[in-house]
Amino acid sequence: MWVHEREFETSAPKDGEWLSCLLAGAEGAAGQDDLMLRAVVSGIDKDRLSGEALFLSAGMDGSMRRPADPFRFVPRPYENTSAFNAAVMIPTGVGAQVGGHAGDAGPLVKLVASVCDHVITHPNAVNASDINELPHNASYVEGSVLTRLLLGNIALQPVRQNRVLVVVDDHPDILFVNAAVNAVNAARATYGLVCPQVVKLSPPVRLKVLYSSSGRAVGEVTNLDLLVQQLWAMRGSYDAVAVSSVINVPAGYHQGYFDSAGEMVNPWGGVEAMLTHTLSTLLDVPTAHAPMFETRDIANADPGIVDPRMAAEAVSLTFLQCVLKGLQRSPRILPGAELGREGLLDVTKISCLVMPDGCVGAATLAALSQGIPVVAVRENASLMNTDLTLLPWRAGQLHIVENYWEAVGVIAALKAGLAPESVRRPLAYAPVALAEPVALPLRASENLSTPVS
User: Which pLDDT belongs to residue 64?
Assistant: First the structure.
């Protein structure tokens, strides 16, 4: 089993069905029996859509079920307005100015949560090595699960506590294995983590860093069979999975990343997302990954004073604590749940999506199709620069703002039921148009010539 990316091109849709177009183009790049795990848009012009898709290849063990289509679209029949719940998404591996490094989107998640009833986000937005300051009214799920939530094919069930299974590389240097086990025990002793077992994996899963032609940090995941087989065999004994493993990067990447002052796309996050997309899709459980140092020389190197967005990575040995804390109460994933069930969070209860401007993937296009308001933030620049205004948004659905301060104002206006532009000046005149005759189709039972009593 191996996980890898493929690039593709397809014709732009003529009927406005951008989600179907993206998914069909990505499926066209699939090999026989490949399972698609992710699809993103890398460029749009008048006639063509360019994209990059993630696939699991080489089949699955006969004892494991093939998951239902993770990209099945279920339109929401209505919006439940009993609470205001925001999804905060920052794609991994695209060099986002906010949230593209080491949990540096934590403050913005707190800010958004301050004006919402609940926020749902993904691990790389808030995971910061030994730090995770996820607010009490927020939770995270793996990025592919957030996409499935917006597509409408899963619901999320809040939990009080998860049993977090921890899988670590059987590292040749016992220092790193002991450090990971100590991190687990620290979590058990200080905030009551439930960990049924720490599993040492030998041979370990292999994660290799690569970059796509668009500059996104991606990679390749191999040696996956033992990990998946182990997790499948132990299903029922855990509710969430934390993985700590070595990520293979070229020599010099560690210091080069710290020296780049944020100009280098974080090389680790992209391939981590590839692994967790795979596990969450196959197992329908919350998953997150922490990188493990390759050698003591790398672990002991002094990176100097680094960009604040990277500082959490410069002061950690295991990078694992944030993963354990986040997974402790990550919501349960319920595939195929009926939309609108009381006590569950599903697409009917998502009030808006907050994301960087220019980013288009299945999650963005799902929000477009579901009629979910989207708040796109220009200041959070990244490698992704698709013009969102090219998409067929409903009136008042897309709100492009300069920064997250402004985004919170728009969110507050949406929560209050106000048109955000109503508190800005000048206020444009309402458009006026002359009504024109329209031919309406009649159902068989209707006869407009019959007088109404």
Answer: 62
Q: Dump the DSSP string for 45-101.
A: -SSEEEEEEEEEES---TTSPPPP-TT-----SS---SS-EEEE---TTS--TTTSS
The residue from 311, 335, 359 where one domain ends is 335
In the three-class reduction of DSSP (H, G, I as helix; E, B as strand; rest coil), residue 275 is classed as helix
Q: How far is CA 275 from CA 18, 123, 222, 228, in A?
A: 27, 13, 10, 11
Confidence of residue 453 (pLDDT cuts 50, 70, 90): very low
Residues with Cβ < 8 Å from 187, sequence gap 6 or more? 193, 195, 321, 324, 325, 328
**pLDDT tens, position by position, 141-190:** 999 999 999 999 999 999 999 999 999 999 999 999 999 999 999 999 99
Please state the pTM of the whole predicted model.
Answer: 0.93
Choice among 45-49, 140-144, 376-380, 423-427 with the minimum mean pLDDT? 45-49
Contact criterion met (CB below 8 Å) for 102 and 257: no
Contacts of 29 (CB under 8 A, 6+ apart): 6, 7, 8, 53, 55
User: Helix, strand, coil proportions of the chain in percent (round to 5)?
Assistant: 30, 25, 45
- Give domain status of residue 381, yes or no: no
- Helix, coil or strand: residue 163: strand
Cis before 431? omega within 30: no
Q: What is the pLDDT of residue 450?
A: 55
Classified as helix, coil or strand, 36 is strand
Q: Examine residue 64 and state whether it is found in any structural domain, yes or no.
A: no
The answer to whether 66 and 278 are in contact (CB under 8 A) is: no
Termini Cα distance of the chain: 70
Q: Which of 284, 224, 257 is nearest to 93 (CA)?
A: 257
The stretch 286-294 carries a mean pLDDT of: 96
Per DSSP, helices labelled H in 192-337 are: 225-233, 253-259, 267-283, 296-300, 311-314, 321-327
From the list 346, 315, 251, 243, the residue with the least C-alpha distance to 285 is 243
Q: Which range marks the domain in which residue 10 is found?
A: 2-57
User: Residue 305 burial (CB < 10 Å; 0-12/13-18/19+)?
Assistant: exposed
Q: How many domains does the chain have?
A: 2
Residue 254: its pLDDT value, please?
A: 86
Domain assignment present for residue 99? The answer is: yes
One-letter amino acid identity for 128?
A
How would you write 390-423 as a 3-class SS string?
HCCCCCCCEEEECCHHHHHHHHHHHHHCCCHHHH
Q: Is the residue at 36 inside a domain?
A: yes
